[in-house]
Write the structure tokens for this entry.
Amino acid sequence: MKNERSNFYSAELPLDALTIDREGGESLQRQIYLALRSLILRRVLQPGLKLPSTRELAKIIDVSRNTIVAAYDQLSTEGYVETRQGASTCIVDLPPPLEAKEPQTENRSPGISKTGKLLVGSQIMSFDPQNCALRPSTPDVASFPFKTWNRLQSNRLRRQGTELFNYNFHGGLPALQAAISNYLQAYRGVRCDSDQIIITSGAQSALDLLSRLLLDPGDRVWMEDPGYVNAAVLFAAAGADIKPLPVSEKGWDLEDVPDGPIRLIYSTPSCQQPLGLTMLMEQRLRLLDIAYRKNAWIIEDDFDSEYRISGKAVPAMQGHDVQNRTIYVGTFAKTLFPAIRIGFMVIPRELGAEVSRAMLYSGHHVSLPLQATLADFIGDGHFARHLRRTRRLYSERRDYFLGLCRDRLGDWLEPICANVGIQIAFQFRQEICDVDFVRHATPRRLNLMALSRFFRSEPPRQGLLMGYAANDQRSTEKYVTELSDLIGGYSPANAGKRPQQKSVS
């Protein structure tokens, strides 16, 4: 009878498919599970078929019963078999798998949304990750006091309780909120309390959250032209109607205010992106008045404001906003190092509850142990000392960089001289297409950025945006020499032709 039963199960259950490798790295239980699952999916084992009992199958293939129990349990958990108390284990009637389409057939993938297409279709600048040659907005990471940072981080982790390791403080660690609030009040003239600080995973994260929280499709955004491309992409993705706020060496043109309502005004008044200009007080007050009359929010992106080469830093515009319409956005990417991924917002109290709740669902959170380390870094005075040291360093590097550019690039490039920021915009003196030139320079590992990509108006100004802060004098001379050689021999057939700009609206 025993042999008859074994023969019966051998006929119903192809035991050759259950061969196991007792010397292999995979456990016996998983080998049996995978073999049975494959037979079920290929319908070699038909729906409704009763599998042998765990005891019987264990004897047939000479393994422990517990091994078969574990394999059956896994199959049952995933829904391949059904086991009822006191009854046999049966194969579940699964729907047949979809047949693979031929490569030539029509793509039936659901695809992505219109918003998603806009995001992924926007122009992305590719930089060499291992080379900071002339890359804009890039600080000197090598000058950062990592030994001090690591010591603070180690101390925090060693003495900290459990509050940093749970789902806490989605708006930001109170210690870091307080440290940032104290810094902003003392050095940037921002009017705020610590509970108005929202910690985000970078300034771009803050802009992403604000664009979704403040804008409905069709809402009008008045934005600097030229302006920060990544912000424009987010506003357009939210369905905004973006209107240009012209900026030039003469300042911000606030005369031609768009008709009708304005929902949001975006500005970088302390260090205009990309020109590096500073908005005068008269223009700041006028912009605040326009926001009040238009019942609009202002996003003040305090881009690169800490690195003013001459004179004291100009206080933030938010400090003069008595109507509480300004949302102040900042980041530690330039002052510390980009990979820290910590930014912040100063939110008017009218928006505080909404933004704090939105943070709960948005996922723009920053590691709490990392926030605690930064709070100590600021509170113990290391941040202020690091800023003083890098200001001196960057001032020297800026002077050297501009001197080399005048000597070796002066025939082709004219700097748009501003005294703030860790990047400098240059305009071509000759008819050269900047997008084509940047493409030509990429194989040489020169991380340049075309100035025209920041413009929405036509024709855009042609030039280059270059960084200087991350390179010492020896590297700077090397890269400027390479650029001089490259631009001196540049004469493609389409030089001087202006490319059609791709709008993000």
Observations:
- Residues 305 and 360 are 29 Å apart (CA to CA).
